[in-house]
Design goal:
Length: about 325
């Protein structure tokens, strides 16, 4: 008798992207995402607005994912979803939908940790890293160095003690009068400038990060130069962006070097939205030669929030029969 295929529907709704994906025997068949542009008007994600948009988007996104994959809902083996961390209202929409759909189809559910899913996005397509490897997870809400020993066995070696790298990009963008999200804009402008301004590198012991002091340093730098010349930002925007990006990247790379020295691990991966930053990617590629690292960088579509990474993580949990019950509730703060 032929073995029954493992077919999973995965849902991601941790922030402002509603995403659904279908996986069959470890292969992604579809990965649909509905983004919310309305938050640009507010300079950041508004939780209430995000949760309401998820309610509007989730049915059509799930329908599109199943249709694109050519899979009937009756063929599903289980439904996976992001349990946390994230915005409570946004998570609640995805979790509630998954629970209802799983109950109606009488199939099991699989809860997934959002950051672990970012890391396991590396196993969606080749080249896939061998264990153990170090993964720098960088986004608007997270900055961590994780030692990945197996698909579901990970140890956090360092984390931010205050703000995340992505937040530092976005808050700087706000000070510069750039649209939200500012990270990609700063990245683009930095390519046209030079890193001629010196910003603070926090003296944080161990492998932990801090970006609050850097944000304050940037604020005071801009205020001081604006008082001298009201056109300073406008006339030096590209160089400011290049200098800010250079410092954020150097903070990340220096901690990675320290993690490599402590563990001896030379396989280095990055994950999360900030891993799309061209400055960070270039700095990591340079380390392939200078540090003899092997670098793993996922496709852009798997760097930002997406359900394919949720499906990939859920696949390994399914193989371990690691399911959850209907009593499960979303966790805005969720540690692993």
């Amino acid at each position: 008798m032929a073995k029954k295929p493992v077919i999973l529907l995965a849902i991601e709704s941790s922030c402002d992207d509603t995403s659904a994906a279908v996986l069959k025997d470890g292969k992604i068949l579809s990965n649909c995402v509905a983004s919310q542009s309305i938050h640009k008007a507010y300079g950041g994600v508004v939780p209430e607005v995000a949760s309401r948009a998820h309610q509007i988007n989730i049915v059509p996104v799930v329908h599109a994912a199943l249709e694109q994959a050519g899979v009937a809902k009756e063929s599903l083996s289980a439904i996976a979803f992001t349990l946390g961390p994230g915005l409570m209202g946004s998570l609640l929409v995805g979790v509630s939908f998954a629970k209802s759909m799983a109950l109606s189809l009488n199939i099991p559910m699989i809860e997934v940790h959002h950051v672990q899913a970012h890391i396991l996005a590396h196993f969606i397509e080749a080249p896939r890293p061998e264990f153990p490897f170090l993964c720098l997870t960088v986004s608007g809400g997270h900055t961590q160095i994780v030692q990945v020993n197996d698909y579901l066995q990970m140890d956090i070696l360092g984390k931010t003690i205050d703000d995340a790298a992505g937040e530092a990009f976005d808050k700087t963008g706000k000070l510069l009068g750039l649209d939200y999200p500012a990270g990609p804009i700063i990245d683009r402008l930095a390519k046209q400038g030079k890193a001629i301004y010196e910003f603070t590198e926090p003296n944080i012991p161990g492998l932990d990060f801090s970006f609050s002091g850097l944000k304050t340093n940037i604020l005071r730098f801009l205020q001081k130069n604006h008082r001298k010349d009201p056109l300073f930002i406008q006339e030096n925007l590209n160089d400011i962006c290049a200098s800010v990006q250079d410092r954020i990247v150097s903070i990340l790379i220096n901690k990675l070097k320290k993690a490599h020295q402590q563990t001896g691990i030379q396989r280095i991966a990055i994950a999360g939205g900030v891993s799309a930053n061209s400055g960070l990617r270039a700095a990591l590629k340079a380390c392939e030669g200078s540090e003899n690292w092997t670098i793993y960088i996922p496709k852009f579509e798997y760097c930002t929030d997406n359900a394919a990474m949720i499906a990939m993580t859920a696949y390994y949990k399914f193989l371990n029969a690691d399911f959850c019950g209907q009593e499960v509730a979303p966790l805005a703060r969720y540690h692993f």
